[in-house]
Amino acid sequence: MIRIYVIMTILCLYQTYTSFGQDCPSKQELQSTLRQVHKLLSAHEASYLQNLRSLRKKLNLLQSSTARQATKTGNGTCPKLEVPNNGRKLGKVLAVGHEVHFLCEPGYELVGSETRVCQESLTWSGQQPICRNINECASTPCLNGGSCVDEVNRFLCTCAKGWTGPTCQTPIPTFFTIVTNVSTSSPTSSPYSSSSSPSSLPSSPFMHPSRCTQFLGSTRCTCEAGFTISGRDSNLCIDIDECELFHNGQAGRLCVHNCVNTPGGYRCTCPPGYNLTRDSRNCKDIDECETRQHNCTRDQLCVNTYGGFQCVRVECPRIRNATYVKTSPVRCERNPCPVDNRACAQAPNSITFHYLSVVSNLSAPRVLFRVSAARVLGDTLRFGLLGARGRRHFTVQRSGRQTGQLLLVSPVQGPATLEAEVEMSELERRAMLGRYVTKVTLFVSPYSF
Ligand SMILES: *[C@@H]1O[C@H](CO)[C@@H](O)[C@H](O)[C@H]1NC(C)=O
Ligand SMILES: *[C@@H]1O[C@H](CO)[C@@H](O)[C@H](O)[C@H]1NC(C)=O
Ligand SMILES: *[C@@H]1O[C@H](CO)[C@@H](O)[C@H](O)[C@H]1NC(C)=O
Ligand SMILES: *[C@@H]1O[C@H](CO)[C@@H](O)[C@H](O)[C@H]1NC(C)=O
Ligand SMILES: *[C@@H]1O[C@H](CO)[C@@H](O)[C@H](O)[C@H]1NC(C)=O
Ligand SMILES: *[C@@H]1O[C@H](CO)[C@@H](O)[C@H](O)[C@H]1NC(C)=O
């Protein structure tokens, strides 16, 4: 009857909410009904408990009488059993045929018999159990060389240098000791070992108290993105040093040049002469010549290099018996020679200046540039390196009937400035018709980007 009444009431409540409740009692009526139901339930509860108690009494009576009978007929009891340390014994009757059960406290495992029976021989079956501490260290939970200390129902990791966290899973950023300014009262104590209350926690942009919540008796502490719980002190969040953490990452370095750790993040920086690219990771050379950020004089040429610029002055050579005239900012041509002046005739017909900028450690071999004869008068063209300078790094090859190329043969580590002279000579029946020289200057930047 009561059950039906309750269901009716609840149905009406539902209807009231959905505003179809024409036949339902008013709010006050409902509440008084509910109170009555409550009372009824309480009364039922009381009588139910009373019944249980009387049932238990009867059961106990029955048990003791049968126990007495057992002692009479079985004539004897088994010896008293010990309660295992950190465990419990269930069952007090020591008469033949009776069982005793054993339990262990959390964190302990039972070794021996869980149940023992008093046998006819008045001895207990099985073995006396013990409660053994479960070894939480057995699964080697401490990472990165940390050592494990087994405690009841838990383990503690003592981390190797440079690691922190409950299982030593978090690397300790190297800056930590530098940035931290621990209170002057205990200048030698590390913030890790101090188990201070949150109010006295050291604070810096790289370190702040964690946010903890209690749930079902356990505490859960969390940190903002980019921060992690500091070691055993779950009250403290420390910044993750992404620069350190991903220094030799599989996916490449975070930054092409320099990584700066920031509270909760990081940023990349570039050396002078470079701007950070849109991806915030790479560095892009600034063309100082193009953007007029150079200070070269009017009679100088501005040559953009990776990370800077060079001011060069193109001057025509002074060779005995030959004179030159500048025909372009980077080209000198020999004036016509007097008849029978061999020294003049053997001097280069033209000298061209070539400036190249490369990054450090450029892979080699690599073609740096090609020279071609615009029109050929003679029957033979020869290409070669002039002088000993640059032979260590360069070589010249023919790459076509009228073309030769300058190759870089080995990587060069910057910063460096290398020079080479490439000569193209034209012959007709082994007689020299003309010599054309290209002076190459290679500016190698200190960086490989
Ligand atoms: C068991 O019964 C025998 C006789 O049936 C008696 O001699 C003995 O003392 C009894 N033992 C105990 C422990 O009551
Ligand atoms: C540490 O903090 C104190 C004041 O709290 C300040 O005087 C001192 O300069 C700080 N030291 C460093 C290294 O920042
Ligand atoms: C490089 O960055 C600076 C400052 O961020 C800016 O003023 C300049 O225009 C940038 N230069 C180039 C070439 O992007
Ligand atoms: C040009 O500027 C550089 C620095 O950018 C300086 O070292 C150099 O002396 C300057 N040269 C002249 C001619 O002012
Ligand atoms: C250089 O020129 C001078 C005259 O200007 C001439 O006497 C001399 O023979 C020339 N030297 C050579 C090697 O041709
Ligand atoms: C030069 O480049 C090679 C291959 O790319 C690389 O293995 C080497 O580490 C680099 N050396 C330097 C000094 O950057």
From TrEMBL:
SUPFAM superfamilies reported for this sequence: Complement control module/SCR domain, EGF/Laminin
Key word Manganese present: no
SMART domains: CCP, EGF, EGF_CA
Entry's localization field: Secreted, Extracellular space, Extracellular matrix
Keywords: Calcium, Cell adhesion, Disulfide bond, EGF-like domain, Extracellular matrix, Glycoprotein, Repeat, Secreted, Signal, Sushi
Occurrences of domain Sushi (ranges): 76-133
Single annotated GO MF: calcium ion binding
Repeat among keywords: yes
A single GO BP: cell adhesion
Database matches in Gene3D superfamilies: Complement Module, domain 1, Laminin
Domain EGF-like per the UniProt entry, residue ranges: 133-169, 239-284
Signal peptide span: 1-21
Disulfide linkage: C104-C131, C159-C168
Similarity remark: Belongs to the fibulin family.
Name of the protein: Fibulin-7-like
